[in-house]
Amino acid sequence: MIAGLIILLLVILFLPFLLKAVEHNLEYFLFVMGIIGVIISKQMNLKLFEHILQNRLIYYITFAVLIAGLLFFFFRSRINKMIELLTHKISIQFFVFILILILGLSSSFITAIIASLLLTEILHHTPLERNTKLKVIVLACFAIGFGAALTPVGEPLATITISKLKADFFYLARAIGFEIIITILLMAFLAALVVKKANKVDKDEYIENTEGVKDVFLRAFKVFVFVFALELLGTAFKPLIDLYIIKLDAKILYWVNMISAIVDNATLAAAEISKEMTNEQVRAIILGMIISGGMLIPGNIPNIISAGKFKIKSKEWAKIGVPIGLILMVTYFVLVFIVRV
To answer: Which of the four pLDDT bands, split at 50, 70 and 90, describes residue 106?
Structure first.
């Protein structure tokens, strides 16, 4: 069983980079892998599906994506005019800096989902070429992923951590708030730098007003499939996590948690976090998860929403996300475990 799960993990990690059909249908691929995973781990039964379908979070995420998509669709022209007005009054790099800063910090209260929906729609109407938008989106998703971990409202990872530790609402803000705010500022600054070096494009080139209502519903459905797939994969890999991962030292766990780039980090948090852990261990585990979550498309819901909207390929995301993630991983490893900030 363990060997089968490890092989499955490798397939999930590498196949999207090797096959275009998988890359273009990532949500469905992950769903199929989730089904295979629960079969391998001998957890395939109706009760599992009932349990997943009873999870309100799946419906909240799906309907949030749907409603926001419909609102943006019907008010598209007004949004475009507002953004056009703003980008004429202030520089585009300052606009992007402020946008990422606000979305990153507010994601802990408006949730990572809403923040990413706002990000994709606003960037859709900015006068930037696709390659520049791609870099900005990856940086912004890192910022949103970090910001959402400040409070249990932002994302399931934070909710489960607070619940497992029986901690107060602002525990994570105190534990890793400094690192989160610094990282959000860094991502916003880097995005502004990327935009400063880029060239603006003509209005007719950057506004692609071709998305219809059907596309909005399809995107919401794909998000539903994606979240369902994460639940299946989390269940499938739980035996592997319970048997090997949770017994590791915090320093090793920090690096092993890079699997959250493809495995639901809420599942990892539920398995790994305990009241017996020191603040240093909790900090290391959470930081490892939220950094890794930005490295690949399946790592976080904002990633999948943004990638779907802008048709970002797995290779394109990894080319930007992996180097940023590795630099952050090394930096925070030094700060937390060696310098002990």
So the answer is: very high
Which token pair is 22?
């998988």
Angle, helix 213-243 to helix 56-74, in steps of 10 degrees: 150
User: What Cα–Cα distance (Å) separates residue 147 from each residue in 100, 125, 141?
Assistant: 10, 24, 10
Closest CA to 169 of 157, 181, 183, 151: 151
Which of 15-19, 138-142, 317-321 shows the lowest mean pLDDT across its residues? 15-19
As a whole number of angstroms, the distance between CA 245 and CA 256 comes to 8
Amino acid present at 253: L
Token match 């912004």: residue? 140
Contact by Cβ (8 Å): 68, 108: no
Q: Contact 285/248 with Cβ under 8 angstroms?
A: no
Nearest residue to 143 (alpha-carbon basis) of 196, 168, 180, 109? 180
Least confident residue range of 18-22, 39-43, 108-112: 18-22
217-262 pLDDT, tens digit per residue, is 988 898 889 888 888 888 888 887 777 777 777 788 888 888 888 8
Distance CA 292, CA 182 (A): 17
Q: Can you give the pLDDT at residue 153?
A: 84
Which ranges in 111-249 belong to alpha helices (H)? 112-124, 130-147, 156-165, 171-197, 203-206, 213-243
DSSP label of 128: B
pTM above 0.90, yes or no: no
